[in-house]
Design brief:
This protein is mostly helical. The chain has a domain at 4-51. Helix content is 65%, strand content 0%. It has helices spanning 8-15, 19-33, 37-51, 64-72, 81-96.
């Protein structure tokens, strides 16, 4: 983990016009570094969620589960473990000789 002082340059280009914001940023970063990793991840998730409306929201979801299940659906029985093992062996022989 990087020390807080090494992250000070991150605040510079973003908030160079307001030194109080830079100070606040560094203070917040020091506090956050004292938290457990789990709590820091929760904070990151909350911050990212708060940005979602400003950044245009998320992409529309597609029905990928239904598509995947449709690709798997057929009239043939599932391959046996022996068949799968044989296919893997054949593949490895082709790939590695």
């Amino acid at each position: 983990m990087l020390p807080v002082e090494s992250n000070a340059d991150l605040a510079g280009p973003i908030m160079a016009t307001d030194t109080s914001q830079i100070s606040d940023y560094q203070t917040i970063l020091k506090v956050v570094h004292s938290w457990t990793p789990t709590v820091r991840v929760m904070l990151m998730q909350d911050v990212l969620r708060s940005l979602q409306p400003e950044l245009g929201g998320s992409r529309p979801r597609r029905a990928t589960l239904g598509t995947a299940l449709g690709m798997l659906a057929n009239d043939q029985p599932a391959p046996s473990d022996a068949d799968v093992a044989r296919w893997l062996d054949e593949h490895r022989i082709r790939k590695y000789g």
